[in-house]
Each structure stands twice: as structure tokens, then as C-alpha cells.
Specification:
Layout: E1 6-9, E2 16-19, H1 26-35, E3 42-45, E4 50-52, H2 53-69, E5 77-81, H3 86-98, E6 101-104, H4 111-121, E7 125-128, H5 133-142, E8 149-152, H6 158-164, E9 179-185, E10 193-198, H7 199-211, E11 221-224, H8 231-244, E12 247-249, H9 257-267, E13 271-274, H10 276-285, E14 298-301, H11 308-318, E15 322-327, E16 334-337, E17 350-351, E18 355-360, E19 373-379, E20 385-386, H12 390-396, E21 397-398, E22 401-410, E23 416-421, E24 426-428, E25 431-433, H13 435-442, E26 448-457, E27 463-471, H14 478-492, E28 501-504, H15 518-524, E29 531-534
Parallel strand pairs: 3-12, 5-6, 5-7, 7-8, 11-12, 11-13, 13-14, 14-15, 27-28
Antiparallel strand pairs: 1-2, 3-4, 9-10, 10-20, 15-16, 16-17, 18-19, 19-22, 21-22, 22-23, 24-25, 26-27, 28-29
Helix pairs in contact: 1-2, 2-3, 2-6, 4-5, 7-8, 10-11
The structure holds 5'-O-[(S)-[(2-aminobenzoyl)oxy](hydroxy)phosphoryl]adenosine.
5'-O-[(S)-[(2-aminobenzoyl)oxy](hydroxy)phosphoryl]adenosine binds next to helix 8, strand 15, strand 22 and strand 23.
Length: 536
């Protein structure tokens, strides 16, 4: 095999992939399209510009050269707090091509989380979009060791430097197994963990899920409401379209039904990627006018379970189906999924080619069909480890299997059914939300003695945080306290993490050893006669 090629063996099922001894992912995802004569085709569409594959490749080279010229070495990390747009692609692929490790992070985080990530990753460089300077700049001042290079995008100061950079760049001599990029994943306790992904992981997800499962083609236009910093969005709107020579629609606007509708009507995507909370929001907005979804071939949902009722209503109103699939940051993308012509409402679907799934039962062996257990998966896209976390890596990545932390059962036909998490973590709008983080924020209020947060299902069948709070004697009334606590959470936590309901209770249910029994709060709900206030 020549350098930098991927061979796809279709004579075997599931599809087998093999890589040349030297392999840099920027070659098949970016440079290959020029060799294939696709230089004039659109790679990216935004409200402001169209970027062709030719322009993309040139910009990737200039940005990669800029990173090298600033002294960032191969294997060093570049933390990216970057909004969705062409620059995200240029930085990500410029780094990858130069052998530098891009670490795109959630742009909704607060300064303290960025400070943690700068220190944890030991990144040599931080790049950020101007919108996030209010959180990133204080983080840069707070860290023990300031990264050597700081790239503030957006003020135009980089433009002359970029223009002066060579428009050619030889790909760093990496292997398919080498570290390529990281994505941070949140856990139930403690700080986020950097999941270390390899060059090959992007190929595996794009081929096995993008092509073999979704049937992606070069005339597809992909629009993802999940942003690029999520593993879900990174595949949907970057690696998948780039793998097939298709087109990505990028927008830095908030994911809101009216804004999305306008983008869909303007760019006419053929694949639409959302999360259940957004499908529910769209359905509500249809009362005010229905967008034209006629260009869309398939809608995809992930991040949290898609309630069968939302799928049913969506099919009824739009005539389009939604393919629900479960993925994770550690697996990089979706490994169990419904597929075109094979949709089982209320199920996550069947195992994606290239992956294996295994449900650990209570007896320590494989769970029988219909019996709940803990879902493990294996496949060639799973993270090598968590950065600097040997214990947590060993606990999660076991003999080539990844512990998803999800409770699942499967039926006799191979369909998998989600039955909740095996820890206390919540998925809110498809994004991780730790109850402990919200509790810690609530107890910062001087009138709060203690607090517990659990997930409660709303009218759409989707989980949102609910708080149970014990107040000091003499504290203000329930409504006043609810609005104060709500303001505190909205001000100091990521925007989706505030409790939607507050319950004020005289005490929290605890075990003999003093541990809060969250399961009892979930099961019994609000003890009668206690004060309750809705935050919305
Ligand atoms: C939950 C689901 C039920 C589940 C992701 C697609 O969500 C993604 O990654 P995260 O690391 O979270 C992983 C966890 O989220 N989950 C995701 N999808 C579903 N639960 N049904 C679903 N369809 O708890 C899982 O362990 O944020 C999704 C592609 C890439 C991703 N990273």
C-alpha cells in the first residue's frame, strides 16, 4: 500500500479498513479531494461565504504553517475554543497535518473549566473566537503556566501573518495509530477527562457510520445542530462530509427552531443532525409555521434517547423519519443505530458495522435477551485512553472493550433499548450535566444547607435537572429563593445546567452512612406538602 491511503475491503462483513504504514488523516479528508479533481466543489457553506475544497486545502496549509512558525511542536496540544465556521476546520486540520494535537472544547463552558483544561492538557497553545474572550482571557491569567502561544481570532491581526505563510505544507509523518486529537468528556465526579483519539478513528466513524450506515454520498449537504466541538457535531458536519467529498453547512447561531428553519430553507441540507430536545422544540414551533424540510433525506438524533412519541409526531408532521443512534465521546461517534428502512421506535437500533456490543448481566456473564445490564462496546474508533488518568482509563477501557456506563437490554432481533445510566449523570439537551456540579453551586448560597439534584422527565419525555434544597431557618419564601437560586445557577454554570424545578424540603433522604439517596428522590418525587417552584 502507498503512503497515506486507506483500503476498504468490501469482501468482508463488517467492512474492514486497513491503513498505509504512514498515515496522516489530513491527507484523505483534505488533500485527496484536489487529487480527485474536486477543488472547485463546495466544502463549506456559511451565511457569509462558500469555501471550496481548493480553498480549504490552501487555508489548512497556511494555518498549519502558522502554528509551526509560532513554535508549536509535533505532539503538543492546541486548545480550541472556536465557534462553528471555516476557521474551526482550518485550525483543526492545520494542526493535524502539522502533527499538532487539536483539542476542541465546549464553547459554553465558564473560565474555571478552561483554566482546568489548559492545565490538564498542558497545551502549548490556545486559540479562541472573540465571542469567548470574556471566559478564556481570565482563564489564561489564572493558570500556573501560561501557554506559550495565544491566538485571539477575529480582530484581523492574524490575516497578514496568514497571507505571508506558504500555501503548501507536507503532512507530518504520522501513523494511523498515533494520537491525532482529543475531546473532553465529563464524568459524574471530578473534572472533565481528555479522551485521546487516533488518526484512524476519524476514518472508522466516517466509513462505518457515515457511509455504511447512513449511506452518505458526495452530493450530500450535512447540517448539524450539535456544534463541532461535540464528537457528534465533529462527525456530522466535518469528518463525514469531508470523507465523501460532500458539503457542510456551518452556523454559529444558537440552535433555535426559527434560526434553524431559515438555515434549512436557505441551504437545503440532505442530512439533518439534531438532539431530542431540539426535535421537541421544533415540533412546538411548527404551530407558528412549518419550515420546508423537503430537501432532507434523513434526520438523525443522538445525545440522549429519542422518545418514541417525538419520533411519531415528527413523522406525522414532516413525513421524514429520525434515525436515533447512541454514540459517545470515547467511541467518537455512533455505534448502535437505527438505519434507513429499519427504524424501531423507542430503540437505539442495531450495532453499526465495525462494532461489537456486549451487555454485562448481574451474574457476571452476558445478559439474556430482554434482561438489563451494562453496555460494553468495542470497535476501532474508541479512545486510546483518558489523558493522564490511568485509573479511570483502566476502569473504562477494559481489554479492548469500552464501558459505556449505560444500562441496556437487547431483544431477540438484535435491537438495543436504552434503560438509563448506571451512574447519576444526566443528559440535558444531549449534553452532560453532573448533578454534583449543580449541587455544589446551590450550596454556595448562604441560605442553603444542602441540596440534591436528580433528573426528572418533562412533558416531552426528556430529562431535565430538578433540585431538592434544604434551607436555613429564616430563609426567604419558596418563590423568592427559587428565583435567587435560579439566577445563581444561570450566572455561574453552563447555560443548560440550571434546575427547571426547585423543591424546598426539611431534609434529604440519606443512607445510614450519610450518602444522599438520589434514587429515592427520583422515585418518590416531591413529598406532599413541600414547597415547589418551577423555574420556567
Ligand atoms: C448518552 C444516548 C440514549 C449515553 C455522542 C453521538 O452523546 C454523545 O457523546 P457523549 O460523550 O455522551 C455519551 C452518552 O450519552 N446517549 C447518547 N446517545 C444516546 N442515550 N440514546 C441515545 N441515542 O448515556 C452515552 O453513554 O456526550 C452521540 C455521536 C457522538 C457522541 N459523542
Amino acid at each position: 500500500m502507498r503512503d497515506n491511503t486507506v483500503a476498504i475491503d468490501r469482501s468482508r462483513v463488517p467492512t474492514a479498513l486497513s491503513f498505509a504504514p504512514r498515515f496522516n488523516a489530513a491527507v484523505p479528508f483534505i488533500d485527496r479531494h484536489l487529487v480527485d479533481g474536486r477543488g472547485d466543489r463546495p466544502a463549506i457553506l456559511t451565511a457569509r461565504e462558500t469555501v471550496t475544497y481548493g480553498a480549504l486545502a490552501e487555508n489548512v496549509n497556511r494555518w498549519g504553517n502558522l502554528l509551526l512558525a509560532r513554535g508549536i511542536g509535533a505532539g503538543e496540544r492546541l486548545l480550541m475554543v472556536i465557534k462553528d465556521g471555516p476557521e474551526f476546520f482550518y485550525l483543526f486540520w492545520g494542526a493535524v497535518k502539522a502533527g499538532i494535537i487539536p483539542v476542541p472544547v465546549n464553547t459554553l463552558f465558564r473560565g474555571d473549566t478552561y483554566a482546568y483544561m489548559i492545565e490538564d492538557s498542558g497545551c502549548a497553545a490556545v486559540a479562541y473566537s472573540p465571542e469567548f474572550s470574556g471566559e478564556v482571557e481570565p482563564a489564561l491569567s489564572a493558570v500556573l503556566e501560561r501557554p506559550r502561544v495565544v491566538l485571539a481570532l477575529g480582530d484581523g491581526s492574524l490575516r497578514p501573518q496568514l497571507a505571508a505563510m506558504p500555501h503548501r505544507l507536507a503532512p507530518a509523518a504520522t501513523r494511523a495509530e498515533d494520537d491525532c486529537f482529543w475531546l473532553y468528556s465529563s464524568g459524574s465526579t471530578g473534572a472533565p477527562k481528555g479522551a485521546v483519539h487516533r488518526h484512524r478513528d476519524l476514518v472508522v466513524t466516517s466509513q462505518h457510520y457515515g457511509v455504511d450506515t447512513l449511506g452518505l454520498r458526495s452530493d450530500d449537504i450535512c447540517f448539524s445542530e450539535a456544534k463541532l466541538f461535540f464528537a457528534y457535531g465533529l462527525g456530522n458536519a466535518m469528518s463525514f462530509p469531508l470523507w465523501v467529498g460532500g458539503t457542510a453547512v456551518l452556523s454559529d447561531a444558537r440552535p433555535e427552531p426559527e434560526i434553524t428553519a431559515a438555515l434549512i430553507e436557505r441551504f437545503r441540507p440532505t442530512l439533518y443532525f439534531g438532539v431530542p430536545t431540539l426535535y421537541a422544540a421544533h415540533l412546538r414551533s411548527f404551530a407558528r409555521g412549518r419550515p420546508d424540510f423537503s430537501s432532507v433525506r434523513y434526520c438523525v438524533s443522538a445525545g440522549e434517547a429519542l422518545p418514541a412519541e417525538i419520533l411519531r409526531r415528527w413523522q406525522e408532521v414532516t413525513g421524514k423519519t429520525i434515525l436515533d443512534g447512541i454514540g459517545s465521546t470515547e467511541a467518537l461517534h455512533i455505534f448502535i443505530s437505527n438505519r434507513p428502512g429499519d427504524v424501531k421506535p423507542g430503540s437505539s437500533g442495531r450495532v453499526v458495522p465495525g462494532y461489537r456490543a456486549w451487555i454485562l448481566g448481574e451474574n457476571g456473564g452476558e445478559a439474556a435477551n430482554g434482561t438489563n445490564g451494562r453496555l460494553f462496546i468495542s470497535g476501532a474508533s474508541t479512545a486510546r485512553c483518558y489523558w493522564n488518568q490511568p485509573e479511570r482509563s483502566a476502569a473504562t477501557m477494559v481489554n479492548g472493550w469500552l464501558d459505556t456506563g449505560d444500562t441496556y437490554h437487547r431483544d431477540a432481533y438484535g435491537y438495543y433499548y436504552y434503560c438509563g445510566r448506571s451512574d447519576d449523570m444526566l443528559k440535558v439537551g444531549g449534553i452532560w450535566c453532573s448533578p454534583f456540579e449543580i449541587e455544589a453551586k446551590l450550596v454556595e448560597h448562604p441560605q442553603v444547607v444542602e441540596a440534591a439534584v436528580v433528573g426528572r422527565t418533562d412533558g416531552d419525555g426528556l430529562v431535565k435537572p430538578e433540585a431538592f434544597v434544604v434551607l436555613r431557618e429564616g430563609a426567604a419564601g419558596a418563590d423568592a429563593m427559587a428565583s435567587e437560586l435560579l439566577a445563581l445557577c444561570r450566572r455561574e454554570l453552563a447555560p443548560y445546567k440550571y434546575p427547571r424545578w426547585f423543591n424546598f424540603v426539611p431534609e434529604l433522604p440519606k443512607t445510614a452512612t450519610g450518602k444522599i439517596q438520589r434514587f429515592r428522590l427520583r422515585e418518590i418525587g416531591l413529598p406532599t406538602g413541600e414547597a415547589r417552584a418551577a423555574a420556567e
